[in-house]
Amino acid sequence: MSLLDKVNNKNIPQHVAIIMDGNGRWAKARDLERSEGHREGIETIEKVVDACTQANVKYLTIYAFSVENWLRPEDEVNTLMDLLVYFITKETPKLLKNGIRLQTIGETERLPERTRNALYKCMEETASGEKLTLVVALSYSSRWELTKAAKDIAADVKNGVLDGNSITEETINNYLATKNMPDVDLLIRTGGEIRISNFMLWQASYAELYFTDTYWPDFDEECLYEAILYFQKKERRFGKISEQLEKENQ
Fold it and tell me: What domains lie within the chain, and their CATH numbers?
């Protein structure tokens, strides 16, 4: 029996975000090149996307490439970019068939032209998908996003577009790359590390955090459902106390 059968379909996290960690260590443990771990990790994305659609998750954001990842060896960066093109091109027909919309967040202008072209083409073709929104964070970091938002807000205040005294949390939300998306409900990190690595700091401020030792290439559908079951055991108070929630739910 699949763990999906135990999932309460009335308490599904609307937005799941995943830090896909452990590709390199997965490969090293098997005496393989790091690139083999990345290739296997690409295949895992397909499994997890399918699992999210089965569980009726509406938004899945995957941390595919951070701003800091540009510091990696050039050949590894090139391999990652080629794999992204391969994945996007290969998956576009399936995304279309299954009603999945592709979006991206990050400094996409820094990506190689071949990667940008594949990405934008897939985004255009899948724009009408309503089953699931797959968000790929590419050349992304939360500090970059918040810094950009601050600069854009400052510019609009200076130009008279925005009243500085009227800035609220909602204002900041509207200047983020995720402005049309719900906040993260469940943040998963694979690979054994217990940190969030500059990922969606604003959006995940009230997310449930799930860390697993499983390397990303070994993370499958059942692992995703296990994380959702963990989420469903949590009482999400958002600063309130249990008694208040009980009264509200009566």
Answer: 13-141+183-235 (3.40.1180.10)
